[in-house]
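Q: Okay, next protein. This is IS3 family transposase from Ruegeria spongiae. I've checked the sequence twice, so it should be correct. Can you predict the 3D structure?
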Amino acid sequence: MSDVMDRHSSSERRACVPADLHSSVFQYKKQGQCDDALRKRLRELSNERRRFGYRRLGIPLAREGFEVNQKKLFRLYRENMGDVPPPRRSFKFISDGSFILLLNAQNHGKNETGPANQAS
């Protein structure tokens, strides 16, 4: 648009008329949104709390001072989910058909037996 204004030595308003463009659209300056800190903290929380969804992860983010609405949080969470592996459960199967559920040591510190072992 500035080329048209320079070539024809016309005003901004007159240069916008042939393009069917309002002058406020031409004057609009995009606001820079720096979400790097939010993305980094969301990724850290997602790795720590793999079972939490985006709404539950929004609570600690709000406590830390990040002001983000649910739509933006969902978009960032969805973009981030490629980096976060899903929670894994480990089973050890025994020859009689029962199993032992192996839990992460950081969460529980011990093994629990599955429902097939508890019935006996």
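A: Here is a summary of the prediction. The chain has three domains: 1-30, 36-80, 88-120. The chain has a mean pLDDT of 75.
Q: Noted. On to the next one.
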